[in-house]
Amino acid sequence: MNIKNVGVVGCGQMGGGIVEVSAKAGYHVVVLEVNQAFLDKGMANVTASLDRAAKKGRITEEEKDKILGRIKGTTSFDDFKHCDLVIEAVIENMEEKKRVFAALDKACPPHAILASNTSCLSVLDMAMATRRQSQVLGLHFFNPVPVMKIVEIVKTILTSDDVVAAGRAFCDSIDKKSVLCKDTPGFIANRLAIIVVIATIRAYEQGLATKEDIDLTMKLGLNHPMGPLELADFIGLDTLYFIACAMYDELKDPAYLPPVLLKKMVIAGQLGRKSGKGFYDYK
Ligand code: 3HC
Hints:
Blueprint: E1 5-9, H1 13-24, E2 28-32, H2 36-55, H3 61-69, E3 71-74, E4 85-88, H4 94-107, E5 113-116, H5 123-127, E6 136-140, E7 150-155, H6 161-173, E8 177-182, H7 189-205, H8 211-222, H9 228-235, H10 237-251, H11 260-267
Parallel strand pairs: 1-2, 1-4, 2-3, 4-5, 5-6, 7-8
Antiparallel strand pairs: 6-7
The structure holds 3-hydroxybutanoyl-coenzyme A.
3-hydroxybutanoyl-coenzyme A is lined by residues 49, 52, 56, 119, 142-144, 146-148, 189-190, 225-226, 231, 235.
């Protein structure tokens, strides 16, 4: 299938990144937010990221303007009426995701593929909110989207092979490697990596070592780009807590049971980088 026009629902950290890489690859992109203020904030982040890329010489000022010219912000689902692929990147709440998929199903042309960027929720449940279940798949990007080179393609038991092939072709076109996985909690990356992050928080909670020494060991001893506690702050402790709970609920594996410290930090509003404080201070 020939994808020309891409839609993105949500212009937060992940949605904004998906908008940026899609427009950079030459797609016309429509991005939807719940209101104008959220849209302005999201677009300001996309513009700032492209400004940084231009300053670093990765794109020219002229290319930057062309990329921005291919992005249209909206607050109405009606603007998805010409989209061939729409990627949902809203909060990790199944009721909200289902509401978005039902609205997309109404607004998008019959041939359009609908994708979710969920990190751990069932893509099949979202597909069931539409009348085009075979055209729904997961496209799970990683943060920061412009930097991370991989996308997990999630195939539900109803996703057609043609739609998976179109998903793969889209990932190729935006210069991302893709891997195919089943619609199971956490897919590949979170199923494996979350265990390490949770085990690290638990070890820190039990007084194994200082947070700095734990992270330094993982960075210098195992060549991780960030220590697990830094990574937890980067992902967002609320997001991490949500993923851990969702995975434990589904898999009943105690490896995913969120540590008490993580829960307390979320209750205290210590959410990591985005709130200015998590395991580390960012103010
Ligand atoms: N947007 C665009 N480019 C960015 C960026 C962003 N948000 N953040 C960093 N970069 C670029 C920088 O411009 C820089 O480019 P250059 O080499 O051309 O100058 C390059 O990335 C390196 O950045 P920095 O020098 O500022 O900092 P670092 O070397 O520390 O790299 C990092 C930052 C790329 C974030 C690196 O620390 C890293 O890879 N961390 C691990 C990230 C990770 O694990 N992500 C996955 C999270 S889990 C997830 O997303 C799944 C979800 O479901 C929870």
